[in-house]
């Protein structure tokens, strides 16, 4: 193996421990890896790295190898990327620079709801780019106002605050909750400032949202984090109610369906209990629908299946079909506590991303589109259960619509690699033992069938 190939993961992690942690894989023992001494780069660029035996892996193409080597020299090593470089996509398919085709069940982590290169989306982005891309929030723009009107008319909310990502939307929700409590307790020396989040939750990677994210290995390198956050068991209504009624809780953050946490769905009773306790105590209920919202469950909003509504809802991933946008949707009661200067963002809600989002939202809002997502999701779930349910490694197939999870009794990493080598892109979730399937919402039943066949063919990789 050449020294340059030995260094392709030098920028991914400072050590094999970090690399495997990001993949949620257990440590390797000496009988299952080779230690390579990387000679070609300085220690700051390339360290000792443990690599899996690659004798059965496909060869990395020359173009891919060149890009990976350049990446290792200039990009901060926060991502453990797969050894593939994509050049273009169409519908539910992606193509790499070596000419290989892949069926995409990742959607850019639940982002590309309309797939790749949707012609209406491309036209909207192109037309808007030709007229106006950015003006900042010092001024008004038509696409921002139109998108906010559309979101308000199709949800519980009265007003919208735009951001650039889901993390920023949750940061806004944190600030709005704190400000709301000060606004409603003007004479209180210590108004409620604490937060509740739940096991297996994920709300982001900024210091504020990381403080609300339960996974310890995400949190520990950056401590001390924001104080006043209590993690409770997801679904434990009694514990949540008791803490909410203490009078110290500004807001409760909960995902109606946990994505990164492992595709766990809340029950209606759990959300009803949170709603009732928050109403009684004056706390806010915040739904994080960054991954599960905007049609992914077959409902426009995941919480619509339960009929239990929040005070704040955060959105992001699929909203602009691949361009960076987020939003915090709030009631008038929450909005009344926010004044000019309390929060802001230079790029958020720009004309370009909002025009793209209008195109995405208009398509998803169609009842026939949502019905199609629900139908395809049920079909795929039944197909996976039929084909994979008898495998000794499969514990459960779960989820709603087109956000599905296959829980395994072993790490899913080898299956992810085998599927990618066979032309299928999938994700992991939870503790690395759950296969996460979040395809574009436009995927066909034929493509779902092909995906199931590839998954079945690749399952021996787990042995």
TrEMBL record:
The record's listing under Pfam families reads: Aminotran_3
Where does it primarily localize? mitochondrion
GO terms classed as biological process: L-arginine biosynthetic process
Where in the cell is the protein located?
A: Mitochondrion
- Note the superkingdom of the native organism: Eukaryota
Top-level EC class: transferase
GO CC, sorted alphabetically, is: chloroplast stroma; mitochondrion
* Single GO molecular function: N2-acetyl-L-ornithine:2-oxoglutarate 5-aminotransferase activity
> Entry's InterPro entries?
AcOrn/SuccOrn_fam (IPR004636), Aminotrans_3 (IPR005814), Aminotrans_3_PPA_site (IPR049704), Class-III_PLP-dep_AT (IPR050103), PyrdxlP-dep_Trfase (IPR015424), PyrdxlP-dep_Trfase_major (IPR015421), PyrdxlP-dep_Trfase_small (IPR015422)
In the Enzyme Commission scheme, what number(s) does this protein have? 2.6.1.11
Required cofactor names = pyridoxal 5'-phosphate
Going by the UniProt record, its keywords in alphabetical order are:
Amino-acid biosynthesis, Aminotransferase, Arginine biosynthesis, Mitochondrion, Pyridoxal phosphate, Transferase, Transit peptide
Which species is the source of this protein?
A: Chenopodium quinoa
Does the keyword section mention Transferase? yes
Involved pathway(s): Amino-acid biosynthesis; L-arginine biosynthesis; N(2)-acetyl-L-ornithine from L-glutamate: step 4/4
User: Entry's CDD domains?
Assistant: OAT_like
Upper classification of the organism = Eukaryota, Viridiplantae, Streptophyta, Embryophyta, Tracheophyta
Q: Reaction(s) catalyzed by this protein? A: N(2)-acetyl-L-ornithine + 2-oxoglutarate = N-acetyl-L-glutamate 5-semialdehyde + L-glutamate
Q: What is this protein called?
A: acetylornithine transaminase
Family, similarity comment? Belongs to the class-III pyridoxal-phosphate-dependent aminotransferase family.
Keyword Isomerase included in the entry's annotation: no
């Amino acid at each position: 193996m050449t020294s340059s190939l030995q260094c392709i993961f030098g920028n991914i992690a400072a050590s094999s421990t970090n690399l495997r942690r990001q993949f949620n894989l257990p440590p390797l023992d000496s009988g299952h890896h080779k230690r390579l001494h990387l000679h070609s780069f300085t220690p700051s660029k390339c360290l000792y790295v443990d690599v899996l035996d690659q004798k059965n892996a496909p060869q990395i193409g020359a173009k891919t190898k060149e890009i990976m080597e350049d990446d290792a020299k200039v990009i901060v090593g926060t991502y453990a990327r797969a050894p593939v470089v994509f050049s273009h996509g169409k519908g539910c398919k992606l193509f790499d620079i070596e000419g290989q085709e892949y069926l995409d069940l990742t959607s850019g982590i639940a982002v590309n709801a309309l797939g790749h290169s949707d012609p209406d989306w491309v036209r909207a982005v192109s037309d808007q780019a030709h007229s106006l891309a950015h003006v900042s929030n010092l001024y008004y723009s038509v696409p921002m106002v139109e998108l906010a009107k559309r979101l308000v008319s199709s949800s519980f909310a009265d007003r919208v605050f735009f951001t650039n990502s889901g993390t920023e939307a949750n940061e806004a929700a944190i600030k709005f909750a704190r400000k709301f409590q000060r606004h409603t307790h003007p004479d209180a020396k210590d108004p409620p400032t604490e937060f509740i989040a739940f096991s297996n939750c994920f709300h982001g990677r900024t210091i504020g949202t990381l403080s609300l994210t339960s996974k310890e290995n995400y949190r520990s390198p950056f401590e001390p984090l924001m104080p006043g956050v209590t993690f409770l068991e997801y679904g434990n209504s009694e514990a949540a109610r008791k803490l909410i009624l203490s009078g110290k809780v500004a807001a409760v953050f909960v995902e109606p369906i946990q994505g990164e946490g492992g595709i766990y769905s809340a029950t209606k009773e759990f959300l009803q209990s949170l709603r009732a306790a928050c109403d009684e105590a004056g706390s806010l209920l915040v739904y994080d629908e960054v991954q599960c919202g905007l049609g992914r469950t077959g409902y426009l909003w995941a919480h619509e299946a339960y009929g239990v509504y929040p005070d704040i809802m955060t959105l992001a991933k699929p909203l602009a079909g691949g361009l960076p946008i987020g939003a915090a949707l709030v009631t008038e009661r929450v909005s009344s506590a926010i004044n000019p200067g309390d929060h802001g963002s230079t790029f958020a809600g720009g004309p370009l991303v909002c025009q793209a989002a209008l195109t995405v939202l208009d398509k998803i809002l169609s009842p026939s589109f949502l019905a199609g997502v629900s139908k395809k999701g049920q079909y795929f779930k039944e197909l996976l259960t039929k084909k994979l349910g008898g495998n000794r490694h499969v514990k459960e197939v779960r989820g709603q619509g087109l956000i599905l999870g296959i829980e395994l009794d072993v790490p899913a990493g080898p299956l992810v690699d085998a599927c990618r080598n066979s032309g299928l892109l999938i994700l992991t979730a939870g503790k690395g033992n759950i296969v996460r399937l979040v395809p574009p919402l436009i995927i066909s039943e034929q493509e779902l069938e092909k995906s199931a066949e590839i998954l079945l063919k690749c399952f021996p990789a787990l042995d």
